[in-house]
Amino acid sequence: MDFDLTPGQQSFKQSIEQFARESVEPWAASIDKTGEFPAQVMQSAAKLGLSGVTIARENGGAGRDYLSYTLAIEAIARASATVAVSLVVTNSLVAELVEHASSNGLHKTWLRKLATGQAIGAFALSEPGAGTDAANQQTAATREGDGYRIKGTKVWVANAEAAAVAVVFASTQPGARRDGITAFLVPLDTAGITRTSRDDSLGVRGLGCMDLDLDVRVGLEHVLGAVNGGFQLAMWALQGGRVAIAAQALGIGRAALDQAIAHAKTREQFGRPIASFEAIQFMIADVATELDAARMLMWKAASLKSSGQDGLIESSMAKLAASEAAHKAADRAMQVLASAGYRRGSTAERLFRDARAAEIYQGTSEAQRMIIAKHL
Ligand SMILES: Cc1cc2nc3c(=O)[nH]c(=O)nc-3n(C[C@H](O)[C@H](O)[C@H](O)COP(=O)(O)OP(=O)(O)OC[C@H]3O[C@@H](n4cnc5c(N)ncnc54)[C@H](O)[C@@H]3O)c2cc1C
């Protein structure tokens, strides 16, 4: 067992940490406050190869391993949770999926655009009645002429505000649930798409979440993978995405720990820094331990993914443990900061809201427990 990073992973980690400190962190508060999609930051990230971290070089990507990808996402999330999720969606849920399933020139063209950051991707699976029960797709794709007509409503589509293309899941065999769903690569400037903003999101504000009303016609070449094989593709993408969301959660948790430590060292009560009180030290020690334990699970899941092994349970365990550890880290940071954190606009308050979403998107904590339990 080797816990050391290779020199290549180490130098990549350091370069992304520097980028996160200098070019992401200064924007984090304003992204949260305005709720505006961080297009400029995403462009800068793309120049460092962060739009297609694991995508093969011949497809326009950086060709790195999964562990390197998670190191980058954790570093970015420590600066801005929003930028990190946006990258996770376009990398794991779109570019990686297109690379995995592509079979024609149209797919290859989009893959290169995604991997180089010329295009941002979105993933449209959730619907008003299809959240945890993602197989309950009511969006229908019916054969019409030499293509498909896709009609329905998608909700909470991250990146949709800025994305050029979305993977849209639709039922092609009504009633067949997971065996009757097909994935389509749909350019978002196709006629018949209405985007409605979800600017009421509690946290990860600026993620460009939108609802999509679809009544579009696309050619057969837009089908990604096999007809009726879309649900399996969605689960494949989410398995990688969960490893990356674990990294995103750990970045938020680490930022919360930073806040708690810095405050504990400077805030004085009873004539001494509150860091000298055992009650404060123990909160910080527990948070650091739980974040590190979750990080080990994430590294294991990322290593399995890099080596092409299954890793289904490991990715769910990593996401479950990291999102719950991040939640606790944000909660304890709030306790250590007390009134200095419990006010609108404080970093601790933003982290508290941002952390919470990691237990919901890409499968709730209950969904992860169901996956883990089913395989035990
Ligand atoms: C910020 C944000 C970004 C998102 N981005 C995207 C995106 O880009 N693309 C996309 O497709 N979706 C996206 N989503 C949607 C997200 O994937 C869903 O919110 C999530 O899957 C949960 O679905 P739901 O909200 O409908 O909750 P529900 O499925 O209604 O669940 C409600 C509660 O019931 C529990 N529950 C449900 N079924 C069971 C069961 N069988 N056993 C035990 N408990 C159960 C859940 O765990 C949860 O606690 C996003 C959501 C958010 C908040």
Describe the structure.
This protein is an alpha+beta fold. The chain has helices spanning 7-34, 39-47, 66-79, 81-101, 105-116, 230-266, 278-306, 312-337, 347-357, 365-374; strands spanning 121-124, 140-144, 147-157, 165-171, 181-187, 193-197, 210-219, 223-224, 268-269, 272-273. The strands form three sheets. The protein has a four-stranded mixed beta sheet with strand order 1-4-5-8. Strands 2-3-7-6 form a four-stranded antiparallel beta sheet, with no helix packed on it. Helix 3 packs antiparallel against helix 4 (81-101), helix 3 (66-79) packs across helix 6 (230-266) and helix 7 (278-306) packs antiparallel against helix 8. It is globular, with a radius of gyration of 21 Å. The structure holds flavin-adenine dinucleotide. Flavin-adenine dinucleotide is lined by residues 89, 123-126, 131-132, 156-158, 201, 204, 207, 209, 357, 360-361, 363-364, 366-367. Flavin-adenine dinucleotide (FAD) is lined by residues 89, 123-126, 131-132, 156-158, 201, 204, 207, 209, 357, 360-361, 363-364, 366-367.
Which series of helices and strands comes N to C?
HHHHHEEEEEEEEHEEHHHH
Major beta sheet, strand line-up: 1-4-5-8
- Give the termini distance in whole angstroms: 24 Å
Q: What characteristic shape results from the CA principal axes?
A: globular
Which radius of gyration do the C-alpha atoms yield? 21 Å
Number of strands: 10
**Average pLDDT level:** 97
Strand content: 5-15%
Helix tally? 10
Helix content: 40-55%
Bound molecules: flavin-adenine dinucleotide
Low-confidence stretches: none
Major sheet description: 4 strands, mixed
- The structural class is alpha+beta
